[in-house]
């Protein structure tokens, strides 16, 4: 593998970051030569040597990784996809007291075979158990007969461990470090061939929290699984303000419930103390306590008027209302007629019979027979009512 710190400008293909182990290349060449020898006997036998050679080549595939070296992060030890994140008991071999958060990762047979250290620190324990040849494929992580690799890492901030499970046929899991070694984050501590399962365990009481979810694709040595700088309490307690809690939905609330909410939300006017009401001192000469009293005294009057006060005011207005308001005034009255009406004397109430007798002349008289005389009589009566006769006499 090329040096990760080497400048990309000196590489012919800077986009090509993968490679193969030396033992993988040797195994592929050996299988290819075997296929050629078999083809000399019978040509179809060539594939019996070539196909295993391709499998050996993919099983030893590696890649360059750039690992974040911050002390408050825990990175993924391998490539794969997150299957589940749950709290469970850690295996006895990891020696973790209490419950732990398990992040299960599944890797395909063609994924990179490097196993990286998830944190910087020391290896407290590392153990590799060989599997049974009959367990060729690791269909389930808990299946029997699989080859298993377990390791525990610790530093001053956190303690973590992982368990790899792969098929038992051939050297599928190989360690490259020993217990007691101090390693940097991202260092290759083992090799896993042809995929399998990886369970990462972090004690539940550890600081921080998991930041990956099922379905997330991981890059070994680069993707962050656990962030120690985040508070675990943030996931248990909802925040004080959220878009869901800031606006309340009243679609299922009845009208009476809304009325009670509005009634409780209205603030009742507070009664000011007597010393505040009677105090008329200027604000400049007042003490801080009197200043607060002045502010309370100058506050706006509440818009809602109590029912008893409103009824008392209406009764007082009704008593002071003048009697002439009940009289109706003609809507359209010429100015000259209005002046004449205002100057006319008040003769008191006149009955209907008297008014008829005053307006009509006696029966059989000449005025009833002559229309002109009757109209003149009517004009005189109108002048008398208007007060013109009295003016002429004076």
TrEMBL record:
Lineage: superkingdom: Bacteria
GO annotation (BP), single: phospholipid biosynthetic process
Annotated region (Disordered), positions in chain: 312-394
Keyword Transmembrane tagged: yes
Pfam families assigned to the protein according to its UniProt record, in alphabetical order: PS_Dcarbxylase
TM segment ranges: 20-39
The keyword Lipid metabolism is annotated on this UniProt entry: yes
GO MF annotation, one: phosphatidylserine decarboxylase activity
Keywords: Cell membrane, Decarboxylase, Lipid biosynthesis, Lipid metabolism, Lyase, Membrane, Phospholipid biosynthesis, Phospholipid metabolism, Pyruvate, Transmembrane, Transmembrane helix, Zymogen
Protein name as annotated: Phosphatidylserine decarboxylase
Organism annotation: Henriciella barbarensis
């Amino acid at each position: 593998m090329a040096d990760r710190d080497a400048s990309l400008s000196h590489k012919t293909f800077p986009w090509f970051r993968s490679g193969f182990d030396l033992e993988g290349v040797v195994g592929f060449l050996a299988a290819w030569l075997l296929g050629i020898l078999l083809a000399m006997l019978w040509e179809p036998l060539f594939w019996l040597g070539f196909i295993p050679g391709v499998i050996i080549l993919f099983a030893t595939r590696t890649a360059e990784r750039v690992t974040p070296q911050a002390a408050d992060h825990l990175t993924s030890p391998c490539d794969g996809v997150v299957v589940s994140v749950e709290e469970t008991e850690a295996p006895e071999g990891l020696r973790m007291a209490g419950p732990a958060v398990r992040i299960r990762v599944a890797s395909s047979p063609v994924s990179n075979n490097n196993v990286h250290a998830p944190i910087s620190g020391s290896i407290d324990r590392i153990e590799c158990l060989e599997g049974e040849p009959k367990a060729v494929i690791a269909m389930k992580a808990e299946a029997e007969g699989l080859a298993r690799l377990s390791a525990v890492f610790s530093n001053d901030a956190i303690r973590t461990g992982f368990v790899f499970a792969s098929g038992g046929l051939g050297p599928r899991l190989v360690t490259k470090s020993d217990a007691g070694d101090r390693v940097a984050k991202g260092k290759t501590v083992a090799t896993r061939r042809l995929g399998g399962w990886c369970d990462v365990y972090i004690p539940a009481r550890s600081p921080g929290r998991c930041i990956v979810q099922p379905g997330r694709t991981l890059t070994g040595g680069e993707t962050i699984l656990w962030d120690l700088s985040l508070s675990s309490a943030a996931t248990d307690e909802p925040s004080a303000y959220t878009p869901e809690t800031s606006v309340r939905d009243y679609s299922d609330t009845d009208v009476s419930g809304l009325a009670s909410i509005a009634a409780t939300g209205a603030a009742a006017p507070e009664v000011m103390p007597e010393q505040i009401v009677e105090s008329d001192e200027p604000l400049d000469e007042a003490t801080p306590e009197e200043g607060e009293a002045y502010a309370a005294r100058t506050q706006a009057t509440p818009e809602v008027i109590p029912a008893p006060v409103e009824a008392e005011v209406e009764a007082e207005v009704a008593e002071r209302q003048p009697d002439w308001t009940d009289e109706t005034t003609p809507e359209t009255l010429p100015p000259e007629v209005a002046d004449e009406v205002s100057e006319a004397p008040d003769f008191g109430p006149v009955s209907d019979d008297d008014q008829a007798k005053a307006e009509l002349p006696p029966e059989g008289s000449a005025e009833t027979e002559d229309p002109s005389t009757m109209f003149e009589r009517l004009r005189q009566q109108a002048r008398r009512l208007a007060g013109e006769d009295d003016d002429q006499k004076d």
